[in-house]
Amino acid sequence: MSKLFSPITLSAAEGTGLTLRNRAFVAPMCQYSADGEDGVATSWHLQHYGSFAAGGFSLVVVEATGVLPEGRISPRCLGIYDEPTEAAHARIVEMAHGLGAAAGLQIGHAGGKGSTYPTLPGFDAGTVPVSEGGWATFGPTDKAVFPGLADPIALDREGIERVIEGFADAARRADRAGYDVLQIHAAHGYLIHQFLSPLTNTRTDEYGGSEENRTRLLREVTAAVREAWPAHKPLGIRVSATDWDEAGWTVQATATIVRTLAEDHGITWVDVSSGGLVAGSKIPVGPGYQVPLALELTQALADLDVAVSAVGLVANPDQAETILVTGQAHAISIGRAALGNPHWASAAAVALRAATPDAHIQPQYWRAHWS
Ligand code: FNR
């Protein structure tokens, strides 16, 4: 019996939560393919997310989606802040549901890493100027996050309120669009992570300085999202569990804040990534290199009802199975391996002898494996 292909329930603040058909999730991955520059999903997104749903994954997490226009990573990134963006998400959800997968949405604000060129072949790097469809960015301070990015505007109290309300409004829209799970993006050097880390948050007000102050924005965002997102639907978070820098954000601080968010605001799922804030940090990249971070959170949160998913260079079915069987995480998020093969989960189910003509394989495709 494969652990990867056993069901998992993501709990919710109220009710029975959401039971998923297996433990292979799709990691959120920006496609830089919105319609024009208005943040609206296109037919690309329908086929892209649909193919993962048809490919046996249990939970398809849609890419970083800006809660405000200026919260998008690039002018070609998705948003969820008005009727057209919301309606386009509803089509993605309908597609995923029709193919037997649950649909999750990652909502975020890019902060000082917003308004960048798409990370696609043929595009420049760095900040898109306002004259080319970019926008002024915002951050905890007015210092650029990376060399080559424009200096942001330091958020004042009113700006922080706009961010928090943006997250709450996005949660309401995601619910209306039919999403089953919401994931708050607190990772990879974007706005919330910029506030969490002492490397980028040198504010002297109640949002900077102590760990209590640096985590305040995340706690306020999560509280507002919790109010707006139905109690019967699971609420998750994606974290960078370390900056890979001695002076930066740590796995201990991550465990502390996730515990608080779970106890106070009903967070029931944490997806454990790392890095993204500091250019040039020395990251020991290799197969499963972030799994030890997932293990630390699995152990630190063992007394809570929080599912921990591991991510990062987990590309092999046996590797994924071993991580779960040895209790290092409860689920696996698959990124680039899913881009290479959108049917990765079905193929993994076959490899692990967990597939049957009516489980983890799209029935129309059963003859690929049994004749
Ligand atoms: C990403 N990643 C990412 N992460 C995130 O939290 N939100 C996002 O929108 C994106 N976008 C994105 C686009 C593309 C093209 C890639 C390749 C990656 C990171 C991704 O979710 C994952 O954490 C990493 O790719 C590591 O996992 P894999 O790819 O080694 O399985």
TrEMBL record:
InterPro entries attached to this UniProt entry: Aldolase_TIM, OxRdtase_FMN_N, YqjM-like
Domain of life: Bacteria
Keywords: Flavoprotein, FMN, NADP, Oxidoreductase
Cofactor(s) required, per the database record: FMN
Domain NADH:flavin oxidoreductase/NADH oxidase N-terminal: 3-349
PANTHER family: NADPH DEHYDROGENASE C23G7.10C-RELATED (PTHR43303)
UniProt protein name: NADH:flavin oxidoreductase/NADH oxidase
